[in-house]
Amino acid sequence: MPSIYDDIKADHDNHRDLLARIADTTGASKDRQTAWREFFRDVKSHAAAEEETFYSKLMSKTWGQDAARHSVSEHADLDQLMEDLNGMDMSSSGWLNKFNKLRHDYEHHMDEEEDEVFTRARKVIPEAETKSLGTRFRARKEKELKLVAKKREDHLED
Ligand SMILES: [Fe+2]
Ligand SMILES: [Fe+2]
After folding, report:
1. Measuring CA to CA, how many Å separate 57 from each of 41, 70, 91, 136, 139?
2. pLDDT digits (tens, 9 = 90+) for 29-59
3. Which residue ranges make up each domain of the chain?
4. Which of 9, 42, 81, 139 could serve as 102's disulfide partner, Cβ 3.0–4.6 Å?
């Protein structure tokens, strides 16, 4: 059974691929729209599940608090960038500039989680808990994926 670290890393690798895929597309092409939608939905759900399982656990440990707070505050910044992009014209140079910033910042965020944050977490979260934490992460993410899809439908109906 995978640990929470494997689950998070697998999502990150998918997100890195999607970022590269989006960067390879042009204008408001169908490919860009599809890849962006997939990225948006998955990253939102990933971040929410991370906060509610992994970071809430890390936050409960004295030596995990600052790392957890730092990452959660980066989530808020990244979320703002993604929401901004959602409201912009994909074929504009402004969109691409902002996307490049998002890509840079998010890649940095993922690298930091996999290095500093995982190292810190391995010291404070008992190894025996990491598999059940992984299971909770996956279940939470599934729920979030449905919520994001639902919000999008409601938004389109407005
Ligand atoms: Fe994160
Ligand atoms: Fe992450």
Report:
1. 24, 14, 41, 12, 16
2. 999 999 999 999 999 999 999 999 999 999 9
3. 4-157
4. 81
